Amino acid sequence: QVQLVESGGGLVQAGGSLRLSCAASGRSFSVYGMGWFRQAPGKEREFVATINWNGGRTDYADSVKGRFTISRDNAKSTVYLQMNSLKPEDTAVYYCARTKDPGAGSSWYHLYDYWGQGTQVTVSS
Length: 125
Prior knowledge:
Number of helices: 0
Structural class: mainly beta
Shape: globular
Number of strands: 11
Radius of gyration: 13 Å
Strand content: over 45%
Distance between the termini: 40 Å
Order of helices and strands: EEEEEEEEEEE
Helix content: under 10%
């Protein structure tokens, strides 16, 4: 059984930074792609960033390119999301997820099968 636990959310002023972590339990973390998604109140869950199994390939939503960085430490079974220059519109619950199949990451919600419980990020103006 795979469990994903996010941490690092909180309240920050616009322009500030936060680093989210997602610790995975269970075997074979290092062979799967990982992703971050977010959901704001009244909105659908949206893609934020993804990383392939060895960290060699990443992809980002246009809204966060140049501000957010996804990375992973397979020795620690953890994926990170460094968020800089935060904006009020980044306010949401952030979720990490693991892909159904080993290898690449994805921006498609339905290609993930394990999800964390989410961590709240609030950016004040």
